[in-house]
Structure formats: structure tokens, C-alpha cells
Specification:
91 residues, mainly alpha, Glutaredoxin, two-stranded antiparallel sheet, 4 helices
Length: 91
């Protein structure tokens, strides 16, 4: 994905989310910008997904945002945003 962007003269800002995890608020902003819920931003294949009980449908989005902010490797990636355009992560 990155190579394709660079081939097309796009110079994306790379965010190293494992080194600087997004805050709860930033995740909410990202979810709104992408017009998807937090559950669509979760990597369900990670062992932590099951260990943390994120498959529990009764968990509130606020709780999930908090969990993901503390364990950013659960964020589905890549997410590319440029101006008003965006690329949604796929599960």
C-alpha cells in the first residue's frame, strides 16, 4: 500500500500507532471520519480480541474505545486518510 501511494506521488504522514497510540478521543474522531463504528476498526484475529472479551456485544463503544486506546495493536490497518477521502480497513 505504501509503495503504491509513493508511486503516485502521495507522501502520506505515517503514524506509528504502536509507539504513539491514539487516544480515546482520536479513535472516536477517526471512527467518525471513516463513518464506521469502533468494532469495524478492531483486528479480530489478534489473541487479545478474545482474551479481552471484545466479542461481547454488550460492551459499550466507550469501553471498546478505551480498550483499543490502551492496546493499539488491535487497530485494523492500514487506514489511509487524505483530505475528505479515506481508505477503510478491511477485516
Amino acid at each position: 500500500m505504501l509503495a503504491l501511494l509513493k508511486e503516485n506521488d502521495a507522501n502520506p504522514e505515517i503514524i506509528y500507532y504502536l509507539e504513539m497510540p491514539p487516544s480515546h478521543e482520536k479513535l472516536v474522531e477517526l471512527s467518525e471520519k471513516l463513518s464506521i463504528g469502533i468494532r469495524d476498526l478492531i483486528r479480530t484475529s489478534e489473541p487479545e480480541y478474545r482474551e479481552l472479551g471484545l466479542d461481547d456485544k454488550s460492551l459499550s463503544e466507550t469501553t471498546i474505545f478505551d480498550i483499543i486506546a490502551k492496546d493499539p495493536k488491535l487497530i485494523q490497518r492500514p487506514i489511509v486518510i487524505k483530505g475528505g477521502s479515506h481508505f477503510k480497513p478491511s477485516s
